[in-house]
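Example record for the data management plan.
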Amino acid sequence: MVRDFNRKLRLTGAVLGCATCKELAAEFRRINPRTTFDVERAYKWLQGRAMPRQQQVYLDWLALLNIDRQLAWLVECDTEELLEVLCRSRNLPRDEVRRRAEAFAAGSSLTVNRRSVGGDHHICGLYIGYSFAWSPYYSERLIRGTLTIESPLAQGRLAASYTETLPTSHVNVRGSVTASGRSLYMHLCERGSNLPLFFSLYRPAPPASVLAGLICGAILVGHDPRPSASRIVFLRVAASEAEALQANRYLEDGESLSAGLGAAGLVLSAPEEVEERLSTFLRGMCGGGRDQVLADEYAGLVALFDRVLIDQGSIATKK
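Corresponding structural encoding:
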């Protein structure tokens, strides 16, 4: 079994400067005019739905990358190991290669994505998330997390990863994104422990500046695993993933959210309004033992942060 073949194939397209699967196929033919790399099947390979059965494809792949490694290493390494070797051998910045790989994936799988997830690849990117802490030890404190959304996963679905930094551990849950009607759902689990978190969010239109809704799971820092739910808001930022992860933590009482967003590259012309809108949204309005996010509340956030993102002149994608 070849490890992470679809993700490593995207990296290959990225470092070669390819924008589509057809361009990548041309690179394979340049190395070997008789290559068995097939464009139609390659679309499935890039989605993780299948892998090449002919060894010649892997031999051509190794020759195309031109790295000082054996075929066995290329087959068994993970995506990060290959990224490190490719960036070092070509003197390329890692974040830039990641960005190119994401762009290559979107360009190569456009038809499939539009059929299976309604073209929701526009939500791919990096987001900073805020929600109220569930732990009784941090009552009334906000916790900051990081969400990345990538495209595509198996069967054309988007892939998501959410990370929080707790005093006792780092939590990283991964899984697929399901779009249905006007809603977006993420059922994410931590590898090894199978710790689950569930997100129910509004499905955003471009430029997808805000993802907002509810997060559901159980307390991790406390004497018992109380079933819990709270509001959560994700804001698209231009920082690198590494920079965003470093700032994940429980926030201090009164700590400025707009300052943290500014440090992550989100330029805010009205930070006081941002603070007020986010605080009001996260505290909710329904009460009565339940919380439901009203459409008007979400629309207010979209109007605010779409304007911020458009005025800033760039839409950040995952690095």
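Summary line stored alongside the record: Residues 109-118 have pLDDT under 50 and may be disordered.
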